[in-house]
Amino acid sequence: MTDLRRDAPTPGPAAVHAAYAAAYESLTFPLVTRARQELSITLAAQPVFDLTTGLPMSRRIRRCVRHAGGEAALAGGRGTLEPMDLKRIDLQTLKHGLDLLRLQPGDSGIVPAFWRTIASSGGRFALLCAELQHGAAPGALLIEVMGGLEQAPAEAIADAVSHFETAALGAVLHVAPDPGSVRRLVGVRARCLALDFAGVAHEAGRDWPEAAALIGAGRDVCDHLLLLNLRPERAREARAAGATHAVFAGLDPLRV
Questions:
Q1: 61 within 8 A of 93, measured Cβ to Cβ
Q2: What residues does 230 pair with on adjacent strands?
Q3: Sign of torsion, CA 109 134 175 30?
Q4: Which residues of the chain, if any, have pLDDT below 50?
Q5: Using the 8-state DSSP alphabet, how is residue 80 labeled?
Q6: Angle value at C-alpha 170, between 225 and 20, nearest 5 degrees
Q7: Which end of the chain is more exposed for a tag (fewer CB within 10 A), N or C?
Q8: Neighbours of 206 (CB within 10 A)
């Protein structure tokens, strides 16, 4: 993912370990929905590693929405949240996320947005991203589209993300870690594909062939593949299977 690259000296193993083990910089802000529900939204800036060099070369904003049912309920449109609530969450995430990333020339960062916001904006969200980025963030900005892509027609996804195909903007498609969900995106032009490995068995050697096949399916769809919550000890195997970037899981055992 060339837009994510940042020039930096090659660190030693201790420096790389410290980069993914360090606490993430974060911020929390409140939001009241149209139904007068109070939400608490936390954004954390995670380092994104290039699996070829082992360098942290970008940052990704991880979003946590505290609400009955969690962010999965929000993304699926269930409960009492309205589409306008999702848009307001995304707008505030974009503004606060850019403040948290503090992009400089040559930097890049990833900020999440719900598929509903992207699909219904007709390109207006991309224009807003470009406007805010031009004034305060000179680096490259990628929007991680999540929540509902598995149900959306591939043609609709391709049309929506085409608005982000600029030198300073791009789209990352966050899709369920399932080969069928991944393969249906063949032909959709996006800067990167993101797969969350938190729910993918990949710690034990016996689990790795299936995980590697999923990575291979992702690379068949997109030249750049970002693995989220990858166990750091699997970085070399993930790279060999075709993954290009990773946000590493913590060092404690995963419980999913």
A1: yes
A2: 248
A3: positive
A4: 2-3, 5-13, 15-16, 77-78, 251-256
A5: T
A6: 50
A7: C
A8: 8
